[in-house]
Each structure stands twice: as C-alpha cells, then as structure tokens.
Amino acid sequence: MKNIDFTNVNITGGFWYNRQEINAKTTAQAIYDKFSETGRFDALKHDWTNGMPNKPHIFWDSDIAKWIEGVAYILEKNDMPDLEEICDNAIDLIEKNQADDGYFNSYFQVVEKDKRFTNRDWHELYCLGHLIEAALAYKHATGKDKLLNCCLRYVDLVYRIFLVEDSAAFHTPGHEEIELALVKLWHETHDARHLELAKHFIDKRGVQKEVPEDYWCNDAYFQSHLPVREQKTAEGHSVRAVYLYSGMADIAFETGDKTLLDACKVLLDDIIEHKLYITGGIGQSSVGEAFTVPFDLPNSTAYTETCAGIGLIYFASRMQKFFVDSRYGDLIERILYNGLISGVSLDGRAFFYENPLEILHAERERNVSVPRQNPRFPATRRSEVFSCSCCPPNFLRLIASLGNYICSVDDDNIYLHQYISSSIKVDDEILLSQKTDYPNNGRVEIIVKNAKNKTINLRIPAYTKNNYSVLVDGGKDTEEVENGYHSIKCKSDLTMIILDFDVTPKLNFSSPDVWGNANTVAVTAGPVVYCAESIDNVENLHSLYIPENFEYSLSTDEELDVPTIQINGKISVKSFDGLYGQSRKFEDALIRLIPYYAFANREECDMLIWLNIL
Amino acid sequence: MKNIDFTNVNITGGFWYNRQEINAKTTAQAIYDKFSETGRFDALKHDWTNGMPNKPHIFWDSDIAKWIEGVAYILEKNDMPDLEEICDNAIDLIEKNQADDGYFNSYFQVVEKDKRFTNRDWHELYCLGHLIEAALAYKHATGKDKLLNCCLRYVDLVYRIFLVEDSAAFHTPGHEEIELALVKLWHETHDARHLELAKHFIDKRGVQKEVPEDYWCNDAYFQSHLPVREQKTAEGHSVRAVYLYSGMADIAFETGDKTLLDACKVLLDDIIEHKLYITGGIGQSSVGEAFTVPFDLPNSTAYTETCAGIGLIYFASRMQKFFVDSRYGDLIERILYNGLISGVSLDGRAFFYENPLEILHAERERNVSVPRQNPRFPATRRSEVFSCSCCPPNFLRLIASLGNYICSVDDDNIYLHQYISSSIKVDDEILLSQKTDYPNNGRVEIIVKNAKNKTINLRIPAYTKNNYSVLVDGGKDTEEVENGYHSIKCKSDLTMIILDFDVTPKLNFSSPDVWGNANTVAVTAGPVVYCAESIDNVENLHSLYIPENFEYSLSTDEELDVPTIQINGKISVKSFDGLYGQSRKFEDALIRLIPYYAFANREECDMLIWLNIL
Q1: pLDDT of B478 above 90
Q2: What's the rounded Cα separation, in Å, for the pair B449 and B435?
Q3: Nearest to A217 among B288, B290, B370 (CB)
Q4: Mind listing the pLDDT tens digit for each residue in B315-365?
Q5: Is B37 helix (H, G, I), strand (E, B) or coil?
Q6: What is the pTM of this model?
Q7: Which chain A residue has its CA at the smallest distance from B506's CA?
Q8: Torsion angle defined by CA atoms of residues B483, B489, B494 and B495, in that order, rounded to the nearest 10 degrees
C-alpha cells in the first residue's frame, strides 16, 4: 500500500481548509518573526562570539530546517515570494558556512568548535535529519537543490565517520530523526549508501551500552536499552521514540524486514493499549518528556508534547501502509482534532509545547512554605516562542502537508482514511473528491471517477460504532465492516457515495485500568474531545457531574467560533459542615463544554476533560 | 474547664486497654532496643569522637526524653523496674554531662561544640522542651527529681540568654515545643520566669524576620511569617505548627489573653475546615512536612505524620477547655482511631512516620527512564526504627497518657468526651465509670457517683447524627443536643446512663471543594475509617465501586483480629478494546474492608480509603 502524497491532494474547504489558511497566512510568518527576533536565523551567519546576545543552541539548525520544510510545503500550493526569499537567504548562509569536509552545525562550528560528534545527546544528527527533510521538500516545491547538495556532502561525511571509520564518540544518534530522513533521501537519490546508513543507525541501536554510568537518565530514555527488534514497550523520551519507530517502519517497508515490522506493531500496540491519552497525546511525564508505566495517565501533569503527537502521526501513517486496520486511522484522527491542534492558538500565533488534559490552579502552589519546591506543571497559556521551540515549526510542516494522511492505495484498492473536503489525484486516471462539514457534521459526500472495478475502503471511525450509513449511487450499502473499513466495489467510472456518521455527543469511559480516570467521563462529538473551562462554568470543575443519561443542546461560541455542547448536568453543593459528611447534595447545573483544541484561548482559568459521571 | 489528668483515670477494658497493654509490655521495650542499637542512649555519655559509629544527632536528646516521658506515664500505673532503671541511668548521664552553666545537648556539647544557639533550626530548645516534659512526668511517677533539677538549671540559662541578654543568634525556636513545656513547668514550680519565658517565645514569634534570604523554606515553614496573633491560616511544618498552637492555647488559658485564644480558634477552624484528612491526619505535603493550600488533600502522597496527629490532639484537647464544642472531641476521636494508631503495627513493634491514605504501587516507579527522579512516596511498610524517629516515642507517651482526653470538668459540669471503658476520679467525691465495647459496639454504660446536681455532658459524635439513644436511670432522655453535647442533670448520687450510638457502616463524602475525592466515598463504622487492601480484593482497587444503597455484612479477620466489613459492591470490567470506549460494564464484587489502622500488617499491597461511588 502507498500513501497518496499531499502534493496530489487539494484540501478544498471546511475545518482543515481554514486551518491551512491560517497556517500559511499567519503561522509561517509568526514563527519566522519570533525565530528571527531570538537570533535563530542570524545564527546561520556563524559570526556569534562570546558576549553577543542570542548564543546559538545545539538544536537551532533543526528549528530553521523544520520551518523551511513547512514553508516548502506551503509553497507547493501557494505563491509566497517573501517566505521563499527568506528560505533562499538561509540556505545561502548554510552553503556558505558549510565546512570543507561537509560538516554543518551552527553551534559546534561556532560555540564549541572542538566538540564535534563527541556527545551523543547533542543533536547533531537530529539537526542533519531535519535539514535533509527540508532540502527534499524545498527542492520539490521550488526546484532549487542548493540545500540538498549541502546535505549530500554532509551525509557523505556522516557515512564515513559512522559507517566506515566508526570514529565518533558514539554509534547511534541520541535524538533519532536522521533514520527516517535518510530513507526519504534514498527515495530521491537512490544512492544505496543512504539506505545503508539509515539501516545502520537502526541496527546498531541498543546493541551496546551508550549511556555513561551515573548519567541523569538510563538507556531506555534514548530507546537504546535493547536492540530495537527486541523492544516490546514504548520507553523514554516520547518524541525520540516515535521518530525512531517511524524510521524502523520505513526500513521495514523498504527492505521487507519482518522482524522490524513486528517490533513496530508491538510498540504501537503498547502505545495504543497502555500509554495514550484520549487527546492522542503521548509522553505522560515531564521527567524525561517520557513514556511512563502502563495506565499511568495523569491529567494535570500530562506532558503530551505537540511534537510527540506529530511523531505519532508519522508512525501510525507508516503502519497504515502495512495493515488494513482502522485503529491507525482512528489514532491519526484522534491526534489531529485534539492534541495536535490544541498546540496552537485559534489565531495561529501562539503555541503549547505541552498539552495537559487538566488545569487546576489550586494545586500549583501547594508548597506554600517551600515555594521553590512547588511541583512542575505545564504552562497554562500558549507562548509565541519558547527556548525549545521544536513544536511550532513541526506544527507548521504537519498542517501544510496534511494531505499526506487522507488516502492510500494498492493495486486493487483505494483506502480513504480521513474525511476532509478535498480533491485527490489517486493516480493518473482516478480522481476522488470529498465534500463535508466534518467533524461538525457526520455527512461526507464522496465522488470517485475512473475507478471501475477498484474497491473503495472507507474507514468507519470506532466512535460511530454501528450508527452510520453508506449510500452508494443512491442505494443503501450494508456491507459488513472488516478491520474497521467498509468496502465498496466500484461498478462504473463514476461512483457516488454518501457516508453519514453519528457525531452527536457521546460519553467516553476509560478502561478500568486507568486508575486516574475512574468514575469520570469525557464528552466527545465525532472525533473531537470536549472540555469544560471555568470561565464557562464554575471555578471548581470537580464539583460538576454528568448524568449517564444526559440531555444536551448544541450551540456555537461566537467569540471563539467553535461549536459548544451544553449538558443538563449537576453540581455537587455542600450539605454539611466541615470537610466530611454522610450525604451529598446536587443541584441542576448547565455544563458548557468547548472543544479541547480551543481551550486557553480566553482568560486564564481551570480546564477539565474528565468530568465526574453520575 | 479543666481536663481530668490521666493519673485519675484507669482504662479498664476494651479497645484501648489492649492498646495500652501492648504499649507498656511491647512498645516501650521495642523502642528502647532500637534506640539503644542506634546509639541514642550511648550518646548521653558524651564520649563520641570522630570516626566512631552512631554520630549523635541534633534531635536525639528529644527521642530519649519522649521515651522517658512515655515510660514515666507507664510507671504511673505499672511496676516495671527494668524500664525505670534504664531511665535512671540515662538521667544520671544527663546530670553528669550537663555543662557548668546548665547547658545540655548531646550534639552541641560533643560534635559541634562551638555552635551552641547559633542556628534557629537546630532543635536545642525543642530538645529542652521534651526534657522538661520528661522530667515532670518522671518526678510525678517516681518522686525522683534529678532530671527536673537539671532542666531547671538549663531553663535558667535559656532565660538569661533569650530574655535577659538576647545573646543567641536567634530569638524564637525553629521547632516549637518548649513553649508548652514551660507552661507545664510553671504549674510545677510556680516560678513566674517560666511562664514569662513561654510567653516571650510566643510573643516574639514572627515579629522580626528570622529566616535568612535564600533559605530553602520561608518564614511560614516555621510559623514565623506573622506575629502569632495575626496568623489566620495553619502554615508550614505541621508538627511544629500544632505544638506552637498548643503553647499559644496554654498561654491564653493561663493569662486570659483573648487575642491569643481568638488566633487559636481561627487556626484550628482552618485545619478542620480546609486541611484535615478523614483519618485526622494533617500535613498534606512531604515537602516541608507541611500544610499546603485549602482542600488540597492528595491521598497517595499524604504526609500526615504520626507526630502531627499527636500534636493536633494536644491542640484540640486544650481548645476543649475553652469551648463546649463537640468538634474538638470529634477531632480527637478521629485521630485516635485512625491516623494515630495507623502509626504503629498491630503488634506494637513497628512504626509509620507518614500515614498515607492510599498506596498505589503502579505510580511509584513511573519515571522508568529517569529512575532517579521518581516521585517521592511514603513508605509502604512500618519500620522498627528510622533515622528521624520522633514518632515512636511520641506514640508511646500519647497512648500511655490516653486518659488525659476522656473527661473534663468545671464547677457545675462534667464533660465526657471519649467513650472508653474506664473509671475516672473526677474529684475527691465524684466517680465516673464507663463500660463499653466501643467502637465495635455503640452501647456505653456510664455510672456516675456522688454527682447530685451536677450536669453530665455527653459528646454526641457527629457521625451518629440523630441515630442514638440515651437512657437515664432506665428512662429515655430526649434532651436536645447543644454544641454537640447531650446534657443530663444528676438528680441523685447515683446516676446510670446508657448511651447507644449508631456504629453501623456509613458512607462518607468529602466536601465538593476537595477536588481529589470527587465521586468517591470512604466507609466508616463509628469513628473508625475503613480501607480496602489489594490482598483482600483485586489488584486494581480503583476498579471497585460501592453502590450508594449498599448492602453489607460484618465479620472479623482472624489473622489480624480486627472487624471487617464486606460490601456487596461492583467491579468495573473492560467492555471495549483499547483505552477508551463508550460504555462501562460492572460485575458484582464483594468488597472487603478492614479498619484503616490495621493496614499494612500483612504482605505488601495497594490500599485505598476513598473508593468510587456508584
């Protein structure tokens, strides 16, 4: 199976059209402005010296690279000469300052010149990985190959150092990313060394101990506690983990290595079954930005980095090529509508690094007499830039290339994974178009042209259960769902399908294993998770209760321009003196919910997804 | 009103008789053995030198003092020459090694000889306070005044240094305790300087900043953030806080200082209304062993030190002298049957410093890839000794002097606060005796002799609500309850009262403000809080649900010899794949509960008080 590339997909309207508009028109420039202000672009000049402001950082090159990549994807569909000029200038500086031997790094060529490839955790290969992805994207969008040529020279050096000489102080990257980038590069170059180098980094990982004794974290943090094929559980830094797993899936796909594929499947199952927030977030702890233990899904301290959600989309979309299994499309949809877009403000200018599932101000300054030891909690407001600004440009490139995740094909089948108004050039003949107000409305109109005898496989989201209908050329289709897909054989060159999913509000329960969510529910409408903010409700959101048979009404928040759900709920009120008593008392309360992705767009307040069930 | 002293109270049977037996026969010796092994008694020899094991610690004198005090209380009722000899030997060493100027401290006379009174947080005055309490107790029990005379010499020195010369590096103690001890001393000596010194430490507290800039905690940790009369909220280290408040109440009682009494009332109200666990535990955070913010009552990280519970009994029993208010007796009862005795194993040999309300093993090693940063949780097993062993001897003295908290009197009234089988010499004429299997049974038989025309005031526990009966001389008494007390005027010289409280299992809810306990209940029977342990139930205690209209049976655990409650409850079982779904499914489950005080007396497992309500 192969995924249809976003360059063959035009998003034509609705929810994601608006998001892409904001992404191209506002977010790209907003990130540039902040990166420029903070010296990230100037760092490419390699003229920083001690005492100057804006000392370059080891991962700044990757920030620039992701931004260029995102802009390249925007340029595929838009003529934006100002952004292109910024890219050209940055690339000129990269070319100018690349070392004679091919090395390029705006930190290690400027700040610590003698530290090249001496510390595994210093992100050099990670930065190169992002530069490769940017170079490929930029060449495809503009035809300009200057950055790609720089990367090729640098990859030659890396091949020599890591594969021929084994002369670096380490053997595999501390922050994975270059693996998947090298596979992409190989698709462009067909240079066998590029695939070989990617495979080398995968194969050597975890084969020997690479973390010094007494280091602040252990090998699991870097996913190098075991050879990758022996890893059964998702461990450590969650962004690094899913980048690695994506690279592993790429190598499995290109080489047919079933042992790698098996590992990928087990790892993704571990995430889905044990370590995934309802928002699609992963990385339960800020300590190591890491996966923790199964079913440990704390809400107010959830780390759930935006980048980890993006990486999980990468991983799941790769797995979607191997297996017809709607869990992967469901997972991508869960991330897209929740933990991904919660990472950016509705105006496209400010970002969350972490995406907690609860904000409870009262607990944040609990150590009143030892304030310095107050616990760490995620930020409650999005920020225009932060020192580790990996997420904003990652978001930029994901949204700009969203078309990648909609459709895939094999010889006889077309698989439609995501319902997004779009026209899709499936191949030279087949055209597929969708028209929908999804997720606000469950109706999706699909027209498939020139696909006679092909089978169209439509993902039936798990949330809709059996509450959906499929009309094919006006007649009801009652085919059984298999592996989460509803299959329709096209009988002519024009097939018209009307899907209708149940996107009315539903209560969601956590598995009983998730101790922290016992006796609570999360409200969803279609794929969208809703939350309560204090500003719309009461200060103490834990006093609200949703009846199991709840009545509701739908509305729109004029200020936020998002749908809202009003639930006829209850509020627990005090019925005794002191802290403990033998009764509880409820009064009626209208509980007003907004989509989780829209939280923290007004004044600062508490927020809660998992509300008490009555 | 004055509290009847335990020397006039004999506990004659039932729950506390057994506890006092174990305390006298096992616990006193067990603590001695461990204190001896760890060098605490040898430290009194003042012969430790560098390189020797068991380096003395700044608070070891207080450990010895509390042990002597506890033994003295035991000696009041028991002939135990072995224990008395140990005390005599220890006291001989103290006398022998007391400095010429009266100073005595086994750390600062031996280890850091030039550091006397240089650091407010080094517990010198705290140790002296405990030595004074021990000296008074030991003189009363044995007639021997050697330790008292040592203390008087030391107090003379402290009076000169702190009150006359103001020559120490600080003005008030970092760890309060000496204040209440000095008031006790004044009762013995009638030396006005002793009351003056106590008042001095109270009055000067918080008047000037005593915490250096950049110290690890702020003034609130030491309750010196404000002059004590201006303090409205319980702050900082919880043991220190309630010792201070007890001293404030003592001074208020002796001097009639209403501003101090008002502060005490507000502070105790703050604890009862905002910061008290259902077990009577206080000190919500291990960081600073401190009070945190209102309604922040996390269960699995609760600090709730045994000593803090003891200190809160001291404070509440003092407030009981000022006000007829059953909240104070309720509070003492809550601590006695729960957070106090949870601090010792059923065999009396091992101790908890912290008394958490939940044990959830799964969350303890959540930072799998950064194990060193795993969160701090309380111990799950009682220990025979720990480096900071303040709790074991504190427990010893509290249990041995439990009779202090049963009864108080004023000119016309007798107040019966606690229902414990006992005979009480109220004054030279009046005798009151109780016979009961409380708390296992709600029936209490009371006989009052020679109290004609006095009013007997019986605390009606809040938990019993209106489900109780009072028979007076065989006739039903229907007097209204006022301030939580039921009043009976004795019409003759022999009054027979039969009380019957409802001690059947009840569900307890937290105030809606307590966010962490929403949608859960705690089961109590009379004053006893019950808990579920995994060993009796399922591994995942958060999958258990108690129906609001629950059926139950009562039984006895043969191994633990404690009552048990079996509830016909429900268990949440998985009804969907993955972590989230739109349904929940319950199956019947017998939920077996034991008294909280008996938890962790078998093999290590999870424990939970606040169970889901269905």
Answers
A1: no
A2: 14
A3: B370
A4: 999 999 999 999 999 999 999 999 999 999 999 999 999 999 999 999 999
A5: helix
A6: 0.97
A7: A582
A8: -50
* DSSP per-residue codes, B426-473: -SSS-EEEEEE-TTTS-EEEEEEES-TT-EEEEE--GGGTT-EEEEET
CA atoms within 13 A on the CB side of A224: 26
Whole-number Å distance between alpha carbons of A485 and A506: 22
Residue given tokens 């440009």 in the structure block: A393
Res A518: pLDDT:
98
| Chain A CB within 8 Å of residue B464 CB | no
What size, in residues, is chain B? 614
Please report where in the chains the tokens 């000392």 appear, as a residue. A55
Residue B494 pLDDT level (bands cut at 50, 70, 90): very high
Q: Using CA atoms, how far apart are residues A10 and A25, in angstroms rounded to an integer?
A: 17
Residues of A in contact with B294 (CB under 8 A): 362
Contact B291, B238 (CB under 8 A): yes
- CB contact (8 A) between residue A368 and residue B542: no
In angstroms, the CA B354 to CA B382 distance is: 9
Q: Are B24 and B400 within 8 A, CB to CB? A: yes
Whole-number pLDDT of residue A389? 85
Within 8 A by CB and 6+ apart from A353, the residues are A305, A306, A343, A378, A379, A383, A386, A388, A390, A391
Backbone angles phi, psi at A608, to 5 degrees: -150, 130
- Which residues in A65-146 belong to E strands, given as ranges? none
Both structure tokens of B507: 């569900």
Average pLDDT score, chain B = 97
Out of B220, B297, B540, the one facing A515 most closely (by C-beta) is: B540
The second-level CATH assignment, the architecture, of B407-501 is Sandwich (2.60)
pLDDT in tens, A317-336: 999 999 999 999 999 999 99
User: Measured between CB atoms, does A365 come within 8 Å of chain B?
Assistant: yes
| % of chain B surpassing 90 pLDDT | 97
In angstroms, rounded to a whole number, what is the distance separating the alpha carbons of residues B359 and A499? 49
Stretches where chain A sits below pLDDT 50 are none
Does B372 reach chain A within 8 Å, measured CB to CB? yes
Taking contacts as CB-CB distances below 8 angstroms, the residues of chain A near B299 are none
Q: Which residues are B571's β-sheet partners? A: B544, B587
Residue with tokens 């579920």: B532
Question: Helix A178-189 crosses helix A192-204 at what angle (to 10 degrees)?
Answer: 160
B518/A543 CB distance under 8 A: yes
Query: Domain spans of chain A?
Result: 38-204, 407-501, 505-613
| Residue tagged 């009371």 (tokens) | B446
For helices A258-274 and A326-334, the axis angle rounded to 10 degrees is: 50
Give me A607's structure tokens.
Answer: 């927020």
Give the residues across from A446 on adjacent strands: A434, A497
Assess B235–A contact: CB distance below 8 Å, yes or no: yes
Distances in Å between the alpha carbon of B369 and those of A235, A276, A292?
7, 17, 8
Question: Mean pLDDT throughout B122-149?
Answer: 98
pLDDT in tens, B375-413: 999 999 999 877 778 899 999 999 999 999 999 999 999
- Record the tokens describing residue A431, joined without a space: 């055209």
Hey, what are A284's tokens? 């339960």
Q: What is the pLDDT of residues B55-76, one digit of tens each?
A: 999 999 999 999 999 999 999 9
* Cα R_g (chain A), whole angstroms: 25
Euclidean distance between CA atoms B532 and B597, whole angstroms: 12
- Select from B291, B280, B403 the least CA-distant residue to B343: B280
